[in-house]
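Thread: quick sanity check before group meeting

JM: Hey all, I'm pulling together slides for Thursday and realized we never actually wrote out the predicted structure for the chain we discussed last week. Dropping the sequence here so it's in one place. If anyone has concerns about the input, flag it before I start.
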Amino acid sequence: MLRVDLNADVGEGSPEEADLLPHVTSLNVACGFHAGGPEEMERAVAAAARLGLAAGAHPGYPDREGFGRRRLSLSPGEVFRDVLYQLGALAAFGRAAGIGLTHLKPHGAMYAAAGGEPALALAVVRAAKAFGGLAVMAPPGSELLRAAAAAGLPVIREGFADRAYLPDGRLAPRGDRGAVFNEPARAARQAVELAVKRGVEAAGGAWLPLEVDTICVHADTPGAARVAQAVRAALREGGVEVAPAKYLNRWAVSMG
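JM (edit): ok, ran it. Output follows.
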């Protein structure tokens, strides 16, 4: 039977977050730099513990004004320290909730930069390794996954149900018309394509092959809860088991 993880970026202040949680199997929790803070982090990891969801870190650039979607001119050393700092903060709340962190997925501009630049990819992986070892979630074929695999860390290949793709495999810029879609049927169709057909229809109609282990639904997309519900139902109807990615079942790091 086909199997895929369904993840969501949370702890960012979305009013739909609570309604979305029952439909996903793993969470990427914002760590306070681009969004959220202690209250949101505590709430998210408590929900993960209560619902049996895998909890990972979603570190970003220190850019609350731009929601972490602006590329900052930070050195690899600065990125390493910022990511490690955020991992430690989230891990403290995880320990209080009785769970360990399973994975790391950079947010926004950091996700894009580390996905394409070897030096920044290595900085993020160094933080995951220094923390004690975390699975790394990133796009298929990215520099970030290459660096993680070279460092001996588990890798989780991610696709998106609610974002349009360019023919070269990059996500369409958010400012482009149709780059983000919140129609449940549209997102559900793309999720099934990713899980069953191993690809998506990119902008312009070209077929883009993509092998993924997890599919993301953004909690801050309007109608996110309805989208997540439709995605999970469509996957089930398509014969796909929705469950945490294989490494997330056994890979958890708790400091202390």
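AS: nice. The two ends are 38 Å apart (CA to CA). The first strand starts at residue 2 and ends at 10.
JM: adding both to the slides.
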